[in-house]
Amino acid sequence: MEANIEEIKELIQKEYRGNQTWFAEEIGINASYLSEIINKKKSAKSSKLCLAIIKWCERKKKNYRNYIFF
Q1: pLDDT band at 9 (very low <50, low <70, confident <90, very high)
Q2: Domain ranges in the chain?
Q3: Distance CA 60, CA 41 (A)
Q4: CA gap 49, 35 in Å, rounded
Q5: 12, 21, 43, 48: which sits with the fewest CB atoms below 10 Å from its CB?
Q6: Which long-range contacts (CB under 8 A, 24 or more apart) does 35-43 make?
Q7: 3-class SS of residue 6
């Protein structure tokens, strides 16, 4: 599993007015951890992030496959 960083960045821009902290709080992960992944300082192969996005997608009735590579 790997997070699709470009799609996640677009999602944050559209639904959270570009605010990564709001998105991190919404999915239940640390904002600095999300920032490090988005800025490619940490691997996008984060099961923690991927599972949080899957749960968020289920709540929001979105297709998690848009945001995660398998």
Answers
A1: very high
A2: 2-69
A3: 28
A4: 11
A5: 43
A6: 37/3, 37/5, 38/5, 38/8, 38/9, 40/5
A7: helix
